[in-house]
Amino acid sequence: MATQQSRSAARIMMAPAVFLLLGWMLIPLCMTLFFSFKKYLPLRGDSMANGLEWVGFANYVRFVSSSSFWPSIQTTLIIVGGVLVITIVLGIALAILLDQPMWGQGVVRILVIAPFFVMPTVSALVWKNMFMDPVNGILAHLWKFFGAEPIQWLSQASLPSLVMIVSWQWLPFATLILLTAIQSLDSEQLEAAEMDGAPVHKRFFFIVLPHLARAITIVTLIQTIFLLAIFAEIFVTTGGAFGTKTLSYLIFQRVLESQNVGLGSAGGVYAIILANIVAIFLMRIVGKNLDA
Amino acid sequence: MGQITLKQVTKSFGNVEVIPSLDLEIGDGEFTVFVGPSGCGKSTLLRLIAGLEDISSGQILIDGQDATSVPPAKRGLAMVFQSYALYPHMSVRKNIAFPLRMAKLHKAEQDRRVEQAAAVLNLTDYLDRRPGQLSGGQRQRVAIGRAIVREPSAFLFDEPLSNLDAALRVGMRLEISELHERLKTTMIYVTHDQVEAMTMADKIVVLRAGNIEQVGSPLELYKNPRNQFVAGFIGSPKMNFIQGEEAAKYGAHTIGIRPEHIAVSETDGTWSGIVSVSEHLGSDTFFHIHDTGLADTITVRAGGEIGFRHGDRIHMTPREDVIHKFNENGLRFT
Ligand SMILES: Nc1ncnc2c1ncn2[C@@H]1O[C@H](COP(=O)(O)OP(=O)(O)OP(=O)(O)O)[C@@H](O)[C@H]1O
Ligand SMILES: [Mg+2]
C-alpha cells in the first residue's frame, strides 16, 4: 500500500473484520480473566447467580505452585520442539524428493498430503490401536519378528510416541509449504553454483537452505500456534498419564475433572501469556525474514 | 589456454533430436559468437560445452583433453547466465567470492581477487549490497565478476544482454569486448541479435535447427554468405531477395542485394517503386519500397539528407558486383 489514500481506504475496509475479530476474541478473554480472580467450584454450589467470591491472585498462585505445573510446561515445549524439528527436517527431505521428476508424481504427492486430512482423534486412535498396541500393533509384530520384546509405546515411551503421532499429522503441511518453496528456486542458480564448484551438499547449504529460510519460518510459526493447543491426541492415547500432560491438558483437567473453573481460568491466562511470548518471538524472526 | 573442440556431438531430448552431428573448433583466445533464430539450439550447445547437459554421442575436447564426462566444475569454464543467476541472499562481495570459497582459497587471496574484479567492473561501491538492490546492468557486471575471479580457461555467455535496455546493451557490449581485449581469454557468446554478433565476434557460428550453417569472421559472412539463410540473417536491415524473371536475368533462382548496395534516384534507375515508409535515422535513411514488381518490399539504405516521402516514386540501381546469386536449394554460387 503505497499512497496515503490507499492506506486509509484499506483501514476503512478492514475495520468491520477487525471489530468482529476483536469482539470474538475479547469477550471470551475478558470472561476468562474475570473467572480467574474468582472462586468458582460449580459442584460446591458456586454459580454466577449466587455471586462469586473474589479471591485475588489465589488461583494464579495455586496453579503455579501445583506440582503438575512445571512438568506440563516442559512437556509442552518438548512436544512443540520435537514435532517442529522432525517435521521440518523430514519435510525438507521429502520436498526435495518430491521435486525430482519421477513416475507417478501426482499420485505420490496426494498420498503424502493425505495424513493432513485425517482428524486428530482418528489418527491418534489409528496409531494407538493399529501401530502401538503392545500385543496386536504392527510395531509389536515387527519387534517380535526380529526377536525383540515389544515396546509398551504409550506407557514406556509415551512422549516420543506422542511426538511421533503429531509429527505424522503435521509432516504433510510442512512438506507442502517447503515443496512449493523449492519449486520456486531458479534452477539457473543451482547450475551457476554447480559451475562455481559447489558439490551437492554445499549447493544444499549455500543455495537451497537460504532459499527455504522464509518457508521454514512460516512453517514454524503456524505449527507452533497449533501445536501449543494439541489436545485430542493426548486425550485419546494416554489421557494425560505417563508425563504427557501439556499445559492445555492441565487446564482441561482443572476445569472439567476437578470442576474448578477459577483455577482453570488462571491456567488459561498463563497459556495466553506463553502463546504471546512465543508469538512475539516468532513475529520478530518472520518479520526479519519477510523484509529481506 | 582455452581451446575447445566438438567432435560429432549430438544431443537429443527423449526422441527429439535438437543437435544433429556437429563439429566445431574454437581456438584459444577467440571470441566466438553463436547466432541463430530462437529455438535453434544455441543455449543447448553452450550447456553441452559447460557440462550442464550430457551429450548424447560424440566428444568434447578442452585443450586437447577429453572432457566429455568431466563434471562442469572441473572443466575450468565459467558461465554467465541470461537471468544472471546471482545468489540473492549473499552480498555482491560474497557472490563474487563464491567460486573462490568453493575452491577453498585463502581469505586474503579471495579478498584480493574480489577487489581486483570489482575495480575492473566498477563495482567497488556496491560490494556490500544485495543483488536485489542493484540495477540490471550492475547485476550483469556482478555475474561477469563472479566468472572472472575464477580465471577460467574460457567464458560462456548465454544472451547476457537480453534483459537490458538498448542504451545499456551498447555499453555492456563494449565492456565485454574490452574485457576480452584485456584478458585474451576464449569467450563463447550466445545471442540472437546479429548486431551483437557482428560487432563483437572474431568468429561467428550461424546455427539453424542445430546445424551449423556457416562459420567465419563477421566480414566473411557479410561478403560471402554460404546460403540464403546466412545472407538473410547477417546484416541489418535484411538483404532483399528477388525471385522470378529478374533473378533469371542473372541465371539464378534467387538473387540477393543488400539495402546499402542500392543507389536511389528521382529520375532514373534499373528498378522503380513507390515509397511506403521512410525511416530517418539522421545519419541514414531507410526506405521501404512497394510496387516494384520484384518482391513484396525492397529495403534501401540511403544518406541522411535524401528526402523521399510516402507515396513518392523512386528509382533504384543495384551495384552489380555485390549481387548474390542463389540456386533453388538456397545455396550461393559466385
Ligand atoms: N530440457 C529440454 N527438453 C526437451 N527439449 C528441450 C529441452 N531444452 C531445450 N529443448 C528444445 O531444444 C531446442 C533448442 O533449445 P535452445 O534452448 O537451445 O534454443 P535457443 O537457440 O537457445 O533459443 P533462444 O534464442 O530462444 O534462447 C528447442 O526446440 C527446445 O524446445
Ligand atoms: Mg537460449
Observed structural traits:
heterodimer, A: 292 residues, mainly alpha, MetI-like fold, two-stranded antiparallel ribbon, 13 helices, 2 strands, B: 334 residues, alpha+beta, Rossmann fold, OB fold (Dihydrolipoamide Acetyltransferase, E2P), 2 domains, 6-stranded mixed beta sheet, 5-stranded antiparallel beta sheet, 9 helices, 19 strands, 27% helix, binds adenosine-5'-triphosphate, binds magnesium ion, nucleotide-binding (chain B), transport (chain B), ATP binding (chain B)
In short:
The complex is a heterodimer of chains A (292) and B (334). Chain A has 13 helices and two strands; from the N terminus they run H-E-E-H-H-H-H-H-H-H-H-H-H-H-H.
Describe the structure.
The complex is a heterodimer of chains A (292) and B (334). Chain A is mainly α and 292 residues long. Chain A has a domain of 193 residues: MetI-like fold, CATH 1.10.3720. Chain A is 74% helix and 1% strand. A two-stranded antiparallel sheet of chain A has the order 1-2. Chain A is flat and about 75 Å long. The two termini of chain A are 18 Å apart. With 334 residues, chain B is α+β, with helices and mostly antiparallel strands. Chain B folds into 2 domains: 229 residues, 3-Layer(aba) Sandwich (Rossmann fold), CATH 3.40.50; 97 residues, Nucleic acid-binding proteins (OB fold (Dihydrolipoamide Acetyltransferase, E2P)). In chain B, 27% of the residues lie in helices and 32% in strands. Chain B contains 9 helices and 19 strands. In chain B, the strands form 4 sheets. In chain B, strands 6-7-8-3-9-10 form a 6-stranded mixed β-sheet, with helices on both faces. In chain B, β1 and β2 form a beta hairpin. In chain B, α2 packs across α3 and α2 runs parallel beside α4. Chain B is globular and about 75 Å long. The two termini of chain B are 38 Å apart. The interface between A and B is medium-sized, with 19 and 24 residues. The complex binds adenosine-5'-triphosphate and magnesium ion (MG). Magnesium ion binds next to α1 of chain B.
